[in-house]
Design brief:
Distance between the termini: 17 Å
CATH topology of the largest domain: Methylamine Dehydrogenase, Chain H
CATH superfamily of the largest domain: YVTN repeat-like/Quinoprotein amine dehydrogenase
Number of strands: 28
Radius of gyration: 18 Å
Helix content: under 10%
Strand content: over 45%
Length: 327
């Protein structure tokens, strides 16, 4: 891992300059201090793709068998993974190179490369998959790309270290972008690509999620070990739920009834009842879970990524780890 980074560092410094980073080495500088992981489940539930920013590879699992089927190498700092709505492709951001690489899900072959920009980090696709929104941490911008052409439609400024957290409202009209510096969420109008407001009151803001009715947002506060509850009609935090130590995750179950928080320092997940806003269960037996938590479409399983890129399979009814997919 170290040798790969050492060999690529001169090249990456030049890449950062070509992509518009404000200073040589800035992209390499933040990579060592900022860590995250990602877990994406294909729409049909058959494939799971995982990454950790400290690894130069990503892994592809077959969910039904629990077996590793593919390893993709050559990354510097892989950050986020998202599947296209039809599941035919998945996109991997790499903040070290500023690239978004699209892979064919069936073959695992590279299908396209998008020049995502300096410090390409968090990503989210529009509902129809035609647009890809990219947080550029190193430049404090958010870029919008046409996935068919790979061309940039807009580069928005006014952000402050946007990292992993970026989500679209269910109606697709508003983009929610987390700003780690300043601990606030920027609201972006997706029609004209302008910032229309912000929500403050967080502490080391991490992952966010939004209910299907678009009324409530949940945000992990790793700085004070809580998950914040935001009333979006009021645009402010209305409650905080104490969870485990150093929470990164705030993942909503498909039915919207529970939020799972990945507690890095406790090696656990806190399960929050969204109605009572209280922790009703704790999942143990994990290894440094962060924001990489997803659910099966039928809501019977949760999947959480461990530090070693293994996936813990959690029974939703008992909130217990029942299996582990291992590299």
């Amino acid at each position: 891992m170290t040798s790969i980074r050492s060999r690529l560092r001169p090249l990456l410094a030049g890449t950062a300059l070509l992509l518009g980073a404000s200073a040589p080495g800035r992209a390499a500088g933040f990579d060592g201090a900022i860590k995250n992981n990602s877990l994406a489940l294909s729409p049909d539930g058959r494939s799971a793709v995982v990454s950790n920013s400290e690894e130069s590879r990503i892994l592809v699992y077959d969910v039904s068998s629990g077996k590793l089927v593919r390893t993709l190498d050559g990354f510097v700092t892989p950050r986020n993974i998202v599947f296209s709505p039809d599941g035919a492709r998945f996109y991997v951001s790499d903040s070290g190179t500023g690239r978004i690489t699209a892979y064919d899900t069936a073959s695992g072959k590279e299908a396209a490369i998008i020049a995502g920009g300096p410090g390409a980090f968090g990503t989210v696709l529009s509902g129809d998959g035609s647009k890809l929104y990219v947080n550029n941490e190193a430049a404090s911008t958010v870029s919008v790309f046409d996935t068919r052409t790979g061309l940039a439609l807009s580069v928005m400024t006014g952000f402050s270290q946007p990292r992993q957290g970026v989500r679209l409202a269910p109606d697709g009209k508003t983009l929610f972008v987390t700003n780690f510096l300043g601990d606030k969420i920027s609201l972006v109008d997706t029609t004209n690509h302008t910032i229309t407001g912000e929500i403050a009151g967080f502490d080391k803001l991490r992952a966010i999620s939004i209910t299907q009715n678009g009324k409530t947002l949940f945000a992990a506060n790793s700085g004070r070990n809580t998950v914040g509850v935001v009333d979006l009609s009021l645009g402010k935090v209305v409650a905080e739920v104490p969870v485990g130590r150093d929470p990164y995750g705030a993942a909503l179950t498909p039915d919207g009834k529970f939020v799972y928080s990945g507690n890095l320092k406790d090696n656990s997940l806190s399960v929050i009842d969204t109605g009572t806003r209280k922790v009703v269960a704790t999942v143990t037996g994990l290894n440094e879970p962060r924001q990489a938590i997803v659910f099966s479409a039928d809501n019977t399983r949760a999947y959480a990524l461990n530090r070693d890129l293994s996936i813990a399979v959690i029974d939703r009814a008992s909130n217990a780890v029942i299996a582990t997919m291992k590299p």
